[in-house]
Amino acid sequence: xxxxxxxxxxxxxxxxxxxxxxxxxxxxxxxxxxxxxxxxxxxxxxxxxxxxxxxxxxxxxxxxxxxxxxxxxxxxxxxxxxxxxxxxxxxxxxxxxxxxxxxxxxxxxxxxxxxxxxxxxxxxxxxxxxxxxxxxxxxxxxxxxxxxxxxxxxxxxxxxxxxxxxxxxxxxxxxxxxxxxxxxxxxxxxxxxxxxxxxxxxxxxxxxxxxxxxxxxxxxxxxxxxxxxxxxxxxxxxxxxxxxxxxxxxxxxxxxxxxxxxxxxxxxxxxxxxxxxxxxxxxxxxxxxxxxxxxxxxxxxxxxxxxxxxxxxxxxxxxxxxxxxxxxxxxxxxxxxxxxxxxxxxxxxxxxxxxxxxxxxxxxxxxxxxxxxxxxxxxxxxxxxxxxxxxxxxxxxxxxxxxxxxxxxxxxxxxxxxxxxxxxxxxxxxxxxxxxxxxxxxxxxxxxxxxxxxxxxxxxxxxxxxxxxxxxxxxxxxxxxxxxxxxxxxxxxxxxxxxxxxxxxxxxxxxxxxxxxxxxxxxxxxxxxxxxxxxxxxxxxxxxxxxxxxxxxxxxxxxxxxxxxxxxxxxxxx
Length: 574
Description:
Elements: H1 3-7, H2 26-29, H3 34-40, E1 119-123, E2 126-130, H4 173-215, H5 219-222, H6 224-247, H7 249-267, H8 273-299, H9 305-331, H10 339-358, H11 363-369, H12 384-389, H13 392-422, H14 430-446, H15 448-454, H16 456-476, H17 480-494, H18 497-508, H19 514-543, H20 548-565
């Protein structure tokens, strides 16, 4: 009120509590049904010494009418305390009925001439229908936003629901079946890629004695194949993060498969040993890309992650089981390198499957298409390398992965040579490698129930202790049959360890870095598949192949220590 008007009005010392309500705004009284019942009881109103508003005439509650447009001052939201009856106020004698304005849901697109109370607004290409007399704050301040009971809130109609998840229609049974088929197709493609990873690792063991004979090399020199393989794995693990950000999941996975084809094409003629070393480097790079993305894609699923990872890596064991059966036959032939023709043909098929299934799309796009996208709202857009390498758990997990995968490939590769020299085995001893990888495959499937029964952390400790005891029997018992059976059971016990490791990684690592972390862990692990066999070759050249078993036992013991250092759980927002 202006000062000139305020000067002509004399203040009233008191206000009769029977008819005047000065401090309550009519727009505030209308939405609250409790206030009229209080106002009808005259004893419920308290006298005030000075009125907040100077009115020349009084009005009853029933004479108030809702203005057609609510101003910003009249829609200020009160606290919850004003909506409840004070404890010291007497109950209402008789509630007074007040007619509330009708709020219409889904106003028509075009209101007729002269009609009021409805309107349309267009925002971001979407039509929103709501009442014009409900004013929403432009600065999104919740304190001045209108408050409606849940039954009277104005409904908003969104006609373009293409990008709106909350109003998306329910998925029909036929659509669910289509999404399920796509998920199975994605999983089958990645399983075949991991199958070929096992195929590659299972090939080297039976062919290693033949390669030594063909090139007239000792243990130390032939182990250079593993060194160059390590260089490829580590290079792929480091480059994977940048390549994925630049080109996306589908294209990087395709790149890794194409590189495998070129590598095997270089090895088919059986050329000079340096060509073999270069080919092993390319193989390591390609396998690192494929393995990291297969693990990252599977681990970022929304449901049944542990089961999916176990099945994925069971296919690795199956590939490593089948490969020695084939490569052992080629190891007895003159053209042993023709085995890589089969490997190259399999990777041509793998390349075609990757292209037709994923079409070079990014992982988040593929996941969204099948309703399997698991986003993290706490993602931080900054240097991913710094974030990944700054997580202590990543280094523990990658070290465990390096020793585990290295031990696994060392047993599969060098056990054949050990049995031939120490147990006087024949070239058919290559089937021992198949027995080991068969146990590896079965362990990842058959022992899943035990992992859930006793807990994955305890299960891994149990498997490692039993595997050490069996490996000691291979060390001290001079029996070819016993050694073959013990190696197969060692594979059975080692099988579940890697899926347990990856599943545990999903629980303690940030989700927005999961694919990058998985790529680094898998890449370092694949590097272990080259580092430890190389160390074995160096030890064998110095102390003989008998040093294989003590080295394996020491690596298994180290795995137990590292697993104890890995945190049980870390709270990660999901």
